[in-house]
């Protein structure tokens, strides 16, 4: 249920509505728009007397929410959400660029890449410390040592860091050390992990699962938001289809659909979508053209010898060259990097 208040509604009117809802064991989630206050209602709304509410002069209308996700629903929050990370905003007209290697491999490697992507215009540094791999014999990441190297790179460059959390046991460490916690595609429906992240106020980059629908992705976001953490950023990283030429199939329609269904920002991961470095630049341009709020790109200073995912990583030189055409495309819609 969504209650839309009249533009003339006062703070006292809002507090009265909240008391009525709480007396009916429902939770009120007000959103303050430019002209109106919209109240999202969570709980068993069947017992609420709608006629009583509509009789109040300051209640404009009451809408039913048919979708199972509530807090992530655009009806609850008509204006786009802006997620603040340090002094940067994700979801506004300033687009977000997250760049860095699949895995942290050494101090020299991560510092070199961090300095180069920052010089090219990246606002965030990505890097895997703990790596979910299909094979148990593959490189699993440098783990805690990798996190320490990411922190060192942040100290040297000032770039906030983005890294993937795999285990609920590491949450406290990630909350302390990482600026944006990434939930990978394989953990999109790890509901215990999502619930625990909902108890934090740390920004969460939630990747779409390998075969997840839009509704399933938004329901995963709902788990985090229902716990009290509204700082969720959606990520389309390609889905599994019958095609085997590419690693996954990039679904650019996700940007349009998710922006219609939800107020949460969405960024695109062209590296995991294609799995081929030579596709990354064109897919990045297409993502910005279709309206994505940013990109997360795998960048390596020596892709041929990368420990992980070198085939889908572009060089630091190619990344630098890519930024200018991306800026030009963004300017068409009065946006910029």
Structure description:
- The protein has helices at 11-23, 50-54, 107-120, 144-157, 171-177, 191-198, 214-226, 253-261, 270-274, 277-290, 316-331; strands at residues 2-5, 27-32, 37-42, 59-63, 83-85, 88-90, 96-100, 124-126, 161-164, 180-183, 204-207, 232-236, 266-268, 294-300, 314-315.
- The protein has 337 residues and is an alpha/beta fold.
- The protein has 2 domains: 2-63, Alpha-Beta Plaits (2-Layer Sandwich); 83-331, Aldolase class I (TIM Barrel), CATH 3.20.20.
- The strands form 3 sheets. A 9-stranded parallel β-sheet has the order 13-12-11-10-9-8-7-14-15. A 4-stranded antiparallel β-sheet has the order 2-3-1-4.
- Helix 4 (144-157) links the parallel strand 8 and strand 9 (161-164).
- Helix 3 (107-120) packs parallel to helix 11.
- The radius of gyration is 21 Å and the shape is elongated.
- It starts with a strand and ends in a 6-residue tail after the last helix.
- The mean pLDDT is 94.
Q: Which strand order spans the largest sheet, edge to edge or round the barrel?
A: 13-12-11-10-9-8-7-14-15
Q: CATH top level of the largest domain? A: Alpha Beta
Specify the CATH homologous superfamily of the largest domain. Aldolase class I
Give the CA-based shape.
Answer: elongated
Oligomer: single chain
Which stretches are low in confidence, meaning pLDDT under 50 for 5 or more residues running?
Answer: none
What is the tally of helical segments? 11
Instruction: Predict the CATH topology of the largest domain.
Output: TIM Barrel
For the termini, the CA-CA separation is 37 Å
What series of H and E elements makes up the topology? EHEEHEEEEHEHEHEHEHEHEHHEEH
The tally of beta strands, per DSSP, is 15
Backbone CA Rg? 21 Å
Query: Beta-sheet strand percentage?
Result: 15-25%
- Using the 3D structure, state the CATH architecture of the largest domain: Alpha-Beta Barrel
Fraction of residues in H or I helices: 25-40%
Q: Structural class given helices, strands, pairing?
A: alpha/beta
Query: How many domains, as an integer?
Result: 2
Give the biggest sheet.
9 strands, parallel
- Look at the structure and give the mean pLDDT: 94
């Amino acid at each position: 249920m969504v209650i839309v208040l009249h533009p003339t509604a006062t703070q006292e009117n809002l507090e009265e509505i909240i008391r009525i809802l709480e007396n009916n064991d429902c939770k009120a989630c007000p959103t303050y728009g430019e002209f109106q206050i919209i109240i999202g209602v969570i709980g068993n709304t069947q017992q609420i007397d709608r006629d009583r509410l509509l009789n109040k002069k300051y209640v404009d209308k009451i809408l039913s929410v048919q979708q199972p996700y509530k807090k992530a629903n655009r009806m609850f929050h008509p204006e786009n959400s802006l997620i603040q990370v340090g002094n940067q905003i994700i979801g506004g007209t300033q687009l977000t660029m997250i760049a860095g290697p699949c895995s942290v491999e050494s101090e020299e490697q991560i510092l070199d890449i961090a300095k180069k992507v920052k010089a090219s215009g990246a606002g965030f540094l990505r890097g895997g410390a703990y790596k979910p791999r299909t094979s148990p014999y593959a490189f699993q990441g440098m783990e805690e040592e990798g996190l320490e190297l990411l922190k060192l790179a942040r100290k040297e460059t000032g770039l906030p860091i983005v890294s993937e959390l795999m285990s609920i046991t590491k949450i406290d460490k990630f909350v302390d050390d990482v600026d944006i916690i990434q939930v990978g595609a394989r953990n999109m429906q790890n509901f215990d992990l999502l619930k625990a992240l909902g108890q934090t106020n740390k920004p969460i980059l939630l990747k779409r699962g390998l075969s997840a629908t839009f509704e399933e992705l938004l329901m995963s976001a709902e788990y985090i938001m229902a716990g009290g953490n509204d700082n969720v950023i959606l990520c389309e990283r390609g889905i599994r289809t019958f095609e085997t030429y590419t690693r996954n199939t990039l679904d650019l329609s996700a940007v349009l659909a998710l922006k219609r269904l939800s107020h949460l920002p969405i960024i695109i991961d062209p590296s995991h979508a294609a799995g081929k470095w030579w596709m990354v630049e064109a897919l990045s341009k297409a993502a910005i053209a279709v309206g994505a709020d940013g990109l997360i790109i795998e960048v390596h200073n020596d892709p041929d010898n990368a420990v992980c995912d070198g085939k889908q990583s572009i060089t630091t030189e190619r990344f630098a060259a890519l930024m200018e055409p991306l800026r030009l495309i963004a300017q068409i819609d009065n946006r910029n990097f």
